[in-house]
Structure formats: C-alpha cells, structure tokens
Amino acid sequence: MKWVLLTVIVICTVLSDVLQSHEMKRSGAQRVNARGLARLLRTVATRRFLILSIVLMAISFFTFMALLQREPLSFAVPASAATFIFETMLAKWVLHEAVGKRRAAGALLVLCGVVLLSR
Amino acid sequence: MRQGLPVERKGPATRSGFEDLRVVSAAARVPKSRILLLTLAVIALHEAGNLSLAWGLKHVASVALSPIPYLLAMLNPFVAAGMVFLSLWLLTRMALMSWADLSFALPLMAVGYVLAAVLGKFVLHESVNTAQWWGVALIFAGSALVGATPHQTHKPRGRS
C-alpha cells in the first residue's frame, strides 16, 4: 500500500508543478503586492490547467498525510523527494528549460541532502 | 543563446498580444536578488502554514484518506490561520514560477527542509545528528549550484 500511496504522491506532485510552471510562464511576470496577488487569483479561476494543478496538489497533500499515518517521516520525506529528479527531467523535456550539468548536479545534491536530512 | 525570450503568441499581433509580450519580457529583467527574496518568502509562508496547521490538527481524532475531517478542523483558529498562510504560499509560489524556471525554483525551495531542521534544533531542541548536518550541507550546496545558473532559460518551441 505504501508504494501505491507514494506513486500517487509523486505523479500528482510532478504533474501539478509542471502544469503550474507551464501556465505561469504563459501568464507572464506576476506582481507580488496585494493587487498583483488578487489579479493572480482571478487568473487561476480562468485557467483550467491551473485549477487542475491545484487539485493535483491537494490530492498529493492528502495522500502524503495518509502515507504519514502508515509510515514514518524518515520514509515518507526522502521517498517523495524523488519528485526533484522527475521534475528536473520534465522541465528539460516538456518545459524546454536549459537544464545543464550544474542544474542537474544541483538537483541531485538536493535530493541526496533531503535523504540524509530525513534519516 | 538569448535568455528570457518572450513567449511566442499564436494569431495576429493584437494590442493585448503586445501587452503580453511586454509582460513576459519583463520577467527576464526581474533581478535575481528579488527572486531569491521571493523564494525566501515562499519558504517562510510554507513553514508558517505547516506549523500552524500541524498545531491545529494535533487534536483531530481521525486522519484518513477522506478530506472531510480536515474540512471540519478548519473551524480551529490555528488551522484557519494555516490555511491563510498556505493560500498565500500557493499564490507567491505561482508568482515565483512566472519569474523563474521550474528547475531553478525547485532546488532553491528545498532550503525549506533546512529551515525545518534548524528550527527543530534551535526552537524545539530536537537532536540533529551528523548525517543530518551533512544533508543540510548538501541541500545548501545544491541550491547554491542551481542558484548560480540563469533564472529563466525556457524558450518557446521553434526558436533557437
């Protein structure tokens, strides 16, 4: 069961982040003052992919809670950090970002760090 | 390779189309210091939201796959405050995504794990072992490595 929950978490998180990044790039640079955030909220309401990304994020969150009920934090956190690798790969292939050696090595270092930190 | 190329728009160059191009070009001009500041704000809002939510949910009896117990727990002020923080976190995170690449922002936001460990050590007086300090060092090293790369590199299809 824990692997099923973990798979759901990873897939939902990765899809949510990729969709969100894709849509936000299309929207252009947003402002972070009160007016800008209100405008962003209206943008969210009109973009179905942004709504889908929030739904996926919520599924991921509740599934993570369910995983924590069955498994210790020392399993749940490093295992779900696998999203770093998948998201970096999709950022390159789907979002067409320039993921060079430094970014790939950085993501790998962060992954190793999260695994060590959660032990 | 030019960075921060404006997103290519389909259809005729309408007035709104030019406005969009102007806005997207502005994303490339956001200084990295502002991006790092926004990343810190995103991390702080996430930690504040999680802490508040965890505190409020402490006394929720049933935690299951169903979201219903969580929805009922929203009447608790700590849970409500946590939801406000997490809503702001979501919006600022989206704004960050509009300023920077996913592969840039994600490793930087991992510094939140470090913050949680440091708060655990110095505020809650939890023990942090040697392996965990190594983890902190690796996360910092990875974030620094990614942070040194250009923050916006995505280019639309068909462009060189």
Structure description:
The complex is a heterodimer of chains A (119) and B (160). Chain A is mainly α. In chain A, 82% of the residues lie in helices and 0% in strands. Chain A is built from six helices and no strands. Chain A has helices spanning 2-27, 34-46, 48-70, 73-80, 83-93, 101-117. The mean pLDDT of chain A is 89. Chain B has one domain (27-147). Chain B has seven helices and no strands. Chain B has helices at 15-29, 32-57, 68-73, 77-99, 102-109, 111-122, 130-147. The model of chain B is unreliable at 1-24 and 156-160 (pLDDT under 50). Classes of the chains: A mainly alpha (119), B mainly alpha (160). At the A-B interface, helix 1, helix 2, helix 3, helix 5 and helix 6 of A face helix 1, helix 4, helix 5, helix 6 and helix 7 of B.
List keywords for this structure.
heterodimer; A: 119 residues; B: 160 residues; mainly alpha; flat; disordered C terminus
Q: Short summary of the structure?
A:
The complex is a heterodimer of chains A (119) and B (160). By secondary structure, chain A is mainly alpha-helical.
Largest sheet of chain B: none
Proportion of beta-strand residues of chain A: under 5%
Indicate the percent of residues in helices of chain B.
Answer: 55-70%
β-strand number of chain A: 0
Give the quaternary arrangement of the chains: heterodimer
Tell me the span between the first and last alpha carbons of chain B. 7 Å
Content-based structural category of chain B: mainly alpha
Radius of gyration of chain B: 20 Å
- Provide the number of structural domains of chain B: 1
Q: How many β-strand stretches of chain B?
A: 0
Instruction: Indicate the mean pLDDT of chain B.
Output: 76
What percentage of amino acids of chain B are in beta strands?
Answer: under 5%
Number of domains of chain A: 1
Principal-axes geometry of chain B comes out as flat
Helix content of chain A: over 70%
Task: Characterize the main sheet of chain A.
Answer: none
Helical element count of chain A? 6
